[in-house]
Amino acid sequence: VRHLVEAHGGSVSAASDGPGLGAVFMFRLPLDGAGRRLLPAVAGKRAALPGIAGLRVLIADDDADAREVLRMLLEAYGSEVVTVASATEALAGLAANAFDALIADIGMPHQDGYSLMRSIRQLPLEAGARIPSIAVTAYASLRERDDAIAAGFTAHLGKPFDPDKLIETLAALAGSVARDRQSAS
Asked: Whole-model pTM?
């Protein structure tokens, strides 16, 4: 929460009168559009990760709140983000547009993230078969990480995820995208 609120120019605070007496969490966000300015700490991180600005990212997660948090975080670092709520929508999005990376949940109804990745890896190369991908999921055990990698995900992060780790992982994937583009030229 702190990372997202500060990235939009706001602040977060918490207070409690003691054990068993509850807690109050407050956040303030600017209403004048100042939220588009990044605080120095976020701006410094953004400058340190040149490969993330302009990165086209597809996010597939059936949880609307999770999609929104991921979208806000990545857009704060300059990525272009499209969100979808299912594996079916993700496949349709890949068919219609070129993306540099995919972030997907594993536990989606009808078609889970494992099946989504196996379907993507069967696509023709020009249709996105090699898209770098991150599983961001509550399925976070070592076995589930291995299952995600075996299904075709490039990386795996457990929920709740560390925003800095997600950005670092995406930046590393962006570097591989840039290298692939250079070798194709």
From this structure: 0.73
